[in-house]
Amino acid sequence: MAGTLKTVSGKSKINLSNKKIAIVVAEWNEDVTEALFDGAHQALHALGVKKSNIIRVNVPGSFELPLAAQWMAEKKDIDGVICIGCVIQGDTPHFDYICQAVAYGVMKLNLKINKPIIFGVLTTLNKKQALERAGGKLGNKGEEAAVTVVKMLEIH
Predict the structure, then answer these.
(1) Contacts of 42-45 spanning 24+ positions with Cβ under 8 A
(2) Is 3 contained in some domain?
């Protein structure tokens, strides 16, 4: 389901074989988040991160992503964190509160911890849009999150 690694081309400018990346995955909307995780995992490996250096942590939902990302980023051996989630708009303003809180939490972590914490959270109007971005016709945003964490590591 993860697609064909459309966003990955070549290797990183830095040696990633000793870099450890945590991927924190929300269990809510699991079919979408699993596809995003698969895309991120495959892309990291294609870019040179050893499979054994990709650490997965599950959380119940997207609201829990920032705290779990902080816990992972505080570990000295973790070089970067990718947050994977999917929030689909419903009939109440709950969607707005969750999306804003998660985005703000991830942004604050970047500045506080000084490690790349990547926002790989889909915020869509419906399930169809989410699936299109999780290995469907619009690619896989999990792959893009993996490329982003590597590009941020290259800068630092």
Answers:
(1) 42/2, 42/5, 42/143, 43/5, 43/7, 43/8, 43/142, 43/143, 43/146, 43/147, 44/16, 44/146, 44/149, 44/150
(2) no
pLDDT above 90 coverage of the chain, percent: 79
Q: Tell me, yes or no, if 156 is annotated catalytic.
A: no
Tens digit of each residue's pLDDT (9 = 90 or more) over 36-71 = 999 999 999 999 999 999 999 999 999 999 999 999
- Domain containing 41 equals 21-155
Query: What total of structural domains would you count in the chain?
Result: 1
Within-domain flag for 10: no
For residue 35, being part of any structural domain is answered with: yes
Mean pLDDT of all residues in 125-146 = 94
Domain CATH for 63: 3.40.50.960
Q: 41, 45, 94, 156: which one is catalytic?
A: 94
